[in-house]
Specification:
Elements: E1 7-8, E2 11-12, H1 13-25, E3 28-30, E4 33-35, H2 42-65, H3 78-98
């Protein structure tokens, strides 16, 4: 189910969906938090790593700009930025594949 015509963060949305689905199938809830775990191999794993890197870099740049004069500093941690990047990417994949973008 690889859709190579629709790109999200420069990667085929179908490959990203495959990787996200694989992670979700191997998720578990621990103390009110969801932990994703599982193998990310091949093209779908590489696509997910690359796309997450792009979204994380975007958030990092936003955080750096927040320290400019007149802005409100964003002090999120690396872990918070990584979690937010994951959810932003999942939302972008959903929007791209359902035509809501």
């Amino acid at each position: 189910m690889t859709n190579t015509n629709v790109l999200v963060e420069g990667e085929p949305a179908g490959l990203l969906l495959e990787a996200l689905t694989s992670l979700m199938e191997n998720s578990e809830e621990v103390d009110g938090m969801v932990r994703f775990e599982g193998p990310l191999a091949g093209d779908s794993g590489a696509a997910l790593v690359h796309a997450l890197g792009r979204v994380t870099a975007e958030l990092h740049a936003d955080d750096m700009r927040s320290f400019l004069p007149g802005a409100t500093p964003n002090t999120r941690t690396e872990e918070q930025r990584a979690a937010e990047a994951f959810f932003i990417l999942a939302k972008r994949v959903d929007e791209a594949l359902t035509g809501q973008a």
